[in-house]
Amino acid sequence: MTGARPPGFNELLHWPVRLSIVSLLAPAAHVEFSYLREATGLSDSALSKQLTSLQEAGYVEVRRTGRRATARLTSAGRRALSEHAHALRALLGEALNAAPVDDTLQK
């Protein structure tokens, strides 16, 4: 492998916590902040920081109503997630199709 990233690979979404967040948001219209916090195991401040990064990229929209906050994946976020998933499949496909190394020959 040359180290080149396949088209659609997204460094911002590749971070496991951000990938988890957008994956949790993908099937829902709006997701409660408290649900995201529990599902990811992040503190309020850590989750807010990750959501802010995703918001700045245009991938997530956060709505606050009083003390309640919800988040949703934007159409740009859905497209980025889809493209990143396609890039990961391309990477894994190459790895899974590679010939296995026979450990017994190296001994």
TrEMBL record:
Pfam families reported in the protein's UniProt record: HTH_34
Gene3D superfamilies found in the cross-reference section: Winged helix-like DNA-binding domain superfamily/Winged helix DNA-binding domain (1.10.10.10)
Annotated ranges, domain HTH arsR-type: 8-97
PANTHER family: BSL7504 PROTEIN
Name used for this protein in its record: Transcriptional regulator
